[in-house]
Specification:
single chain, about 350 residues, Metallo-beta-lactamase, Chain A, seven-stranded mixed β-sheet, binds zinc ion
């Protein structure tokens, strides 16, 4: 091998490493034009995951095909406008043709209206009902409730994210939030379904699955069989305990059955609508955690223990490596306690 050829091979090797480094750096870098905490991750074959910020900030996906773009859950107007810029610079030949709205909660669907003139909107049939319901019938995420049943939320009634975003949603600045204000930028879907809807966009299948009353009665999970990706909506925490939400006043068995239904699907990548992504084993581990928690607490109830006594005795230390174990375990036991009392 001559000197020149050796140099040539070395140069080529360096070039390959250089481009691999650049590609890797780009994959990890925040998308251009957005605040540093926003990122777009390529999941392969036209499917992308968007992280919108730190902590509990919404996570969503979009699919780009030759027949157009489908977005699931653009969470608010600012992110929807940023996404629109990203899409038109990255995919100038494609338009947004579908927006899927996973459920009525403001933290996932307030970006939908940005695409109102160009896209068709898809959701569960109960989404229409919930958008017209009172706040008491269809409360915002978390533990915010219309305690005095006057049809409005005061600052005292609003909790967590609803309180943090109170001024952004109080469009008439009267210091109360109505259901109309909470859902002002959510679009009434043109296409609704009850159990399952399969779309084919540019040869790629998108399967919308009713979540069987987990979290809300209109919640859907989104399965991409050609990509081996499942977007599991609220709340499939991965290796995490969070938050004191009392299983949204649903029996824990409803949650467990819904997760089992998702386990039957064939997928490798699990994207959750908040926090980290994972794989199918993480989904199974989440269901095991719900079952272990339910068993521990129901045994305590059967033995006549109070909530405080169960909290003092239950360890569930096989989950000690999970995020939130040190400060969320008591809240989770309390949530399970009230959920199990519903059965
Ligand atoms: Zn929700």
């Amino acid at each position: 091998m001559g000197f020149t050829m050796q140099r040539g091979i070395k140069y080529l090797t360096l070039l390959v490493f250089y481009f691999a480094f650049i590609a890797n750096t780009l994959a990890q870098a925040p998308a251009r034009g957005g605040p540093a905490q926003r990122s777009i991750t390529d999941l392969g074959d036209g499917l992308y995951q968007v992280n919108t910020g730190a902590g509990v900030s919404a996570v969503f996906v979009f699919l780009v095909t030759d027949a157009g773009i489908l977005i699931v859950d653009p969470p608010n107007p600012a992110i929807a406008e940023w996404l629109q810029d990203q899409l038109s610079s990255r995919f100038p030949d494609q338009d947004v043709v579908y927006v899927v709205e996973s459920h009525y909660h403001w933290d996932h669907t307030r970006g939908a209206k940005t695409f109102a003139d160009i896209a068709s909107f898809i959701g569960h049939e109960n989404l229409l009902k919930n958008l017209n319901a009172s706040i008491a019938e269809a409360p915002p995420p978390g533990n915010t409730r219309d305690s005095n049943n006057d049809g409005l939320l005061s600052r005292e009634e609003a909790q967590t994210g609803t309180l943090a975003n109170f001024d952004a949603m109080d469009s008439n600045a009267d210091n109360y939030l109505s259901q109309a204000e909470l859902t002002a930028d959510t679009v009434r879907p043109d296409i609704v379904f009850s159990d399952r809807l399969e779309l084919n966009l540019g040869g790629k299948r998108v399967v919308l699955l009713w979540s069987q009353n987990r979290h809300t009665d209109d919640l859907i999970d989104v399965y991409f069989p050609d990509h081996g990706v499942l977007l599991a909506s609220d709340y499939v925490w991965i290796n995490r305990m969070c938050c004191n939400f009392q299983f949204d006043e649903r029996p824990m068995r409803v949650w467990i059955e819904s997760i089992k239904n998702l386990e039957a699907l064939d997928f490798d990548i699990l994207v959750n609508s908040h926090f980290d992504s994972g794989n199918k084993q993480d989904l199974i581990a989440f269901r095991h955690w719900l079952e272990d928690l339910a068993n521990e607490v129901s045994t305590g109830i059967a033995n006549g223990l109070s909530l405080a006594e169960i909290q003092a005795s239950a360890k569930l230390d096989q989950y000690s490596g999970w995020a939130g174990y040190d400060n969320q375990l008591n809240s989770m036991i309390e949530s399970a306690y009230y959920s199990l009392m519903l059965q």
